[in-house]
Amino acid sequence: MSRWLAPLAALLLLAAHAGLAIDALWSASVTYDETSHLPAGMAFVATGEMRLNPQHPPLVKLLAGLATAPLEPRLALRSAAYREGREWDFGRRVLFGSGNDSMALLRAGRLPVVGLSLLAGLAVFLWSRARFGPAAGCFSLALYAFSPTVLGHAGLVTMDAAAGATAMATLGLWWVVQRRGTSLPREIGLGAALGCALAAKFSSLFLLPAMALTQLVCGPLPPPWRGLRPWLVALPVAALVIEAAYLWPEDPLRYLRDLAFLHGDHPADYVYYLAGEFRTGRFLAYFPIAIAVKSALPGLAAMLGGLVLAALRPATWRDDVYLWLPAAIWIAAHALLADDLGIRYVLPIYPLLFTLAGGLVPAAQRLGRVGAAALAIVAGAQAGTALLAHPDHLSYFNPAAGGTRAGPRWLDDSNVDWGQELYRLPAWLRARGIDRVRLLYFGTGVPEAYGVATEPLLASDWTVRPRPGAYVISAHWLVHGLYLAQTQGAHSDWLHRYQPADVLGGSLYLYLFPESEPKALNRADAGSPDP
């Protein structure tokens, strides 16, 4: 590719990524964690005090709060919820009980996260181009820009996209310093990127052993003492960036003290779910399986191909290790230590492995037109997957897993349903001639604030026998109903017993029961009375 064509193609790919992300976030209602994160950031900017949501570092909340400040939101800073640090009560009051336009606040607060996702895409392009050439840079960026997994979180006020972007920037600069030569500006840039990563999400601390191990494996640039120099410059710079993200708190150890709150809001007896099985302990295979079922197949094949090719390319292993080893450390650490709540926890591996997949391009070029055509098909299929899934990237599952409607048979929580469809629900119901529904919703939003007209849903509707009428059930609650059926013998396994009339975005399942008694569809109920 000519010198100007590759940057132009990269610009178009980044524009497509931004367009898909912004269009999706524009119609997405508040997701579960955003009810806490966004108002906490707004209060942080207004007061300079991070009283709310200390279990997450401040960068994303700070950026989102700054983005919403021009809207002059009303904040309940004198409320008991704020004084007592009750972040969820405060968040609901700010978004739905203070006269604010919640969608306007969400849209503004989400835009900085889109910018961070674009930063990750730029890092993918630059790193892949530096390693494998300009065509490879465009190929890697196409995989990233059209990844449904990446797009699903590219516009949400949560820590995951920010962690992926800042980790990619940090590791890319670390590779430059270690393999291409160090300098003071590069080391300062490395420290700034590392500080942003640590201020984005506490799990970015795993970058430190990943960086140290890659340096140990590859050996520092000669002379040996120079191996310490990047650390001596970058770590103090990172510490200054963290302090700045906290708006220079009085307690210089605020970051470490907040680290003690990590997972403080996760119940110790929480029941995790994977492929029909429930347990209170972690599934070691959770994240590999989540990657296998939620990644678009073209991108997944490219990531695996890049790993295989790296293993067959011993001459360049010292460069390859800076991509695959941090990804392996990230997955292993989360398999052992993180809660099994979503593929979003391992989002940083995607830009790393998409960059490594750029190595397929020079290999394909040696095959001539056949190789070029094969890679064009992969990139085109990845783009087609994202476009067909739009705007429902959050709940996407690939065809090998059974498609998006099969999502609750594999995973729950933010993998399928995070409360993102309330905004679109009223118009979707009106198009089907439905005025009111019985709603079982998973999320922290207020359905009435989005214009969802509901009727009371009784416990017996859910666990014994549904009365005639229209029901909308969140995909996450369908999984919970399966758990109740297995553990308590309730007739709440709607996932297998009843056929939905329609599904909104892979997240909200519509069930219609006429005046005649609903008929169970589970084979186990054939020939037996209805539940």
What's the topology here?
Blueprint: H1 5-26, H2 34-47, H3 59-68, H4 80-83, H5 87-96, H6 102-132, H7 134-145, H8 148-151, H9 160-180, H10 184-200, H11 207-218, H12 229-245, H13 254-259, E1 272-274, E2 277-279, H14 286-294, H15 297-311, H16 317-337, H17 349-356, H18 360-365, H19 369-389, H20 425-430, E3 437-440, E4 454-455, H21 459-463, E5 469-474, H22 475-488, H23 494-497, E6 502-504, E7 508-513
Parallel strand pairs: 3-4, 3-5
Antiparallel strand pairs: 1-2, 5-7, 6-7
Helix pairs in contact: 1-6, 1-7, 2-3, 2-5, 3-6, 6-7, 6-9, 6-17, 7-17, 7-19, 9-10, 9-16, 10-12, 11-16, 15-17, 15-19, 16-17
Shape: globular
The number of distinct helices, counting runs of at least 4 residues, comes to: 23
Number of strands: 7
Q: What series of H and E elements makes up the topology?
A: HHHHHHHHHHHHHEEHHHHHHHEEHEHHEE
Specify the biggest β-sheet: 5 strands, mixed
Euclidean distance between termini CA atoms: 64 Å
Strand content: 5-15%
Category by helix and strand content: mainly alpha
Instruction: Order the strands across the largest sheet as they lie in space.
Output: 4-3-5-7-6
Average pLDDT? 93
Indicate the low-confidence ranges by residue numbers: 520-531
